[in-house]
Amino acid sequence: GITGQDGSYLAELLLEKGYMVHGIKRRSSLFNTDRVDHLYQDPHDPNQRFKLHYGDLTDAMNLTRIIQETQPDEIYNLGAMSHVAVSFDTPEYVGNVDGLGTLRILEAVRILGLEKKTRIYQASTSELYGGMSENKNERGFYDELSPFYPRSPYGVAKIYGFWITKNYREAYNMFACNGILFNHESPRRGETFVTRKITRAVAKIALGLQEKVFLGNLEAKRDWGHAKDYVRMMWMILQAEQPEDWVIATGVTTKVREFVRLAFSEVGIEVEFKGEGVDEKAYVKAIDQEKYSEATGLRYPKPGEGNNEKRPAKNGLPAIGQEVLSVDPSYFRPTEVDLLIGDPTKAKEELGWVPEYDLASLVKDMMQGDVLLMKKDAFLLKAGHEILKQAE
Ligand code: NAP
Ligand code: G4F
Fold first, then answer.
1. How far is residue 49's CA from residue 93's CA, in Å, rounded to a whole number?
2. Label partner for 251 (CA 20 to 30 A): which of 53, 55, 64, 243?
3. Which of 59, 82, 229, 247 to mutate to test the pocket of ligand 1 (most atoms within 8 A of CB)?
4. What is the per-residue pLDDT for 303?
5. Mean pLDDT throughout 48-61?
6. How confident is the model at residue 391 (pLDDT cuts 50, 70, 90)?
């Protein structure tokens, strides 16, 4: 999973710590290494500490060979088809990659006789809890003892990954741990997860490149942290004295609707929500010209200069009253996880984890990243070039 969000941050962290990092990338007809290209090292460099190998979690022989060749001290299994909604469309594949893929790594380590040498981190998830309210602890959070009730093929596959990791730890005395991580985001988050979909769309709307965004369930609540803080925890879990399972979360939960509001606010746009259920929409209520200019580098025209009145916003700056969000039920899931909130007390007290980001600084970081990204598109369009049509 080195080419993914977490894999790229973890690789940076491990390189900083002096590790030799081996990562597995999938063969793809296009380059798929954008997130780690800045880490690439020429294989002819005698001090090479970053190496990519072709491989796939569905290929046991390939995994076994790479593990044999590299003799790793630590394995972080971050590889997965990680999109919950997509898992309803590809349930067998998800079972194979996210579930059996975990077994393939554990079994390779065992067959190669590396049980005592190689520590293994398994990327488990808060999706295991399924948001069942009766399973929260007495303080109202999910913790290491809360029962599981997965609500998607992804969650069900990950539950196999969780238990087979625990089983190999108990059966073969392996240092194999689960990190039960709640949602974590960043400017590198995949574009189709809700936070990144929002920050990309808000940046485009602010720059006049897009008129509105369609989302699904605005009522869902998530415990959102920053991926940089979470990969640090992955490393700490493998440095612990004993192999155990750990919940990593912020302990704060927020509705999707509120994330939308915060993202718009970062570019000086106040939105108001009207209507209910599938008819709910968001409109531009006010624009803080100073904040808008600071965030986008564009000057927002003053009243009377023409752009502040209601008008079609296509290829223009956002206008007061503009409809910027609608609900599209096609983004609803057959079974939804309504609410996630985690209790990271164990990780904080026993491993001394101190996250650096809160929700406000996470949203700021993501918005700054996406405004910068979309400004490149605006620049290209202005110069008469075409831009990629990438849609969620
Ligand atoms: P991500 O951005 O979707 O990255 C997933 C990685 O897995 C990518 O490198 C992907 O390769 C790779 N992968 C997919 N299918 C594979 C296969 N068949 N064989 C080998 N590699 C494969 O996910 P993430 O957000 O970094 O999350 C990392 C891990 O943590 C995942 O296991 C995820 O399920 C889990 N997790 C994530 C969160 C979260 O909020 N981010 C929370 C809890 C748990 P390509 O780049 O080629 O697609
Ligand atoms: O951003 P999401 O797609 O993430 P989700 O389903 O919580 O899963 C992520 O976090 C898990 C940890 O809890 C990871 F294990 C998993 O790999 C992944 O990283 O959706 C968040 C919420 C959902 O309730 C969804 O229904 O946002 C809601 N939502 C509303 N509109 C939407 C949309 N989600 C997406 N992807 N796209 C929408 O338009």
1. 32
2. 243
3. 82
4. 65
5. 97
6. confident
- Read off the pLDDT of residues 288-314 as tens digits, 9 standing for 90 and up: 999 999 999 998 877 666 554 444 444
* Orientation angle between helical segments 289-296 and 359-382, nearest 10 degrees: 70
pLDDT single digits (tens) 80-110: 999 999 999 999 999 999 999 999 999 999 9
CA angle 340/167/101 to nearest 5° reads 70
Lookup result for tokens 């079972």: 95
If you average pLDDT over residues 175-181, what whole number do you get? Answer: 98
The average pLDDT across 132-157 equals 97
Q: Whose CA is nearest to atom 31 of ligand 2?
A: 216
Q: Is the beta carbon of 184 within 6 A of some atom in ligand 1?
A: yes
- For residue 44, with 0-12 CB atoms within 10 Å meaning exposed, 13-18 middle and 19 or more buried, which class applies? exposed
Q: Which of 9, 118, 121, 127 is catalytic?
A: 127
154 flagged as catalytic: yes
Considering the entire predicted model, what is its pTM? 0.97
Rounded distance, CA 10 to CA 26, Å? Answer: 18
Measured from the CB, is residue 222 less than 6 Å from ligand 2?
yes
> Quick check: CB of 307 below 6 Å from ligand 1?
no
Q: Which of 154, 168, 230, 357 is catalytic?
A: 154
Atom of ligand 2 nearest to the CA of 333: 26
The two structure tokens encoding residue 335: 């079974």
- Among 3, 102, 118, 125, the active-site one is 125
Which residue's C-alpha comes closest to atom 7 of ligand 2?
183
**Where are the strands (E) in the chain, listed by range?**
21-25, 50-54, 74-77, 119-125, 176-181, 184-185, 213-215, 221-222, 225-226, 246-248, 254-255, 269-274, 281-287, 323-327
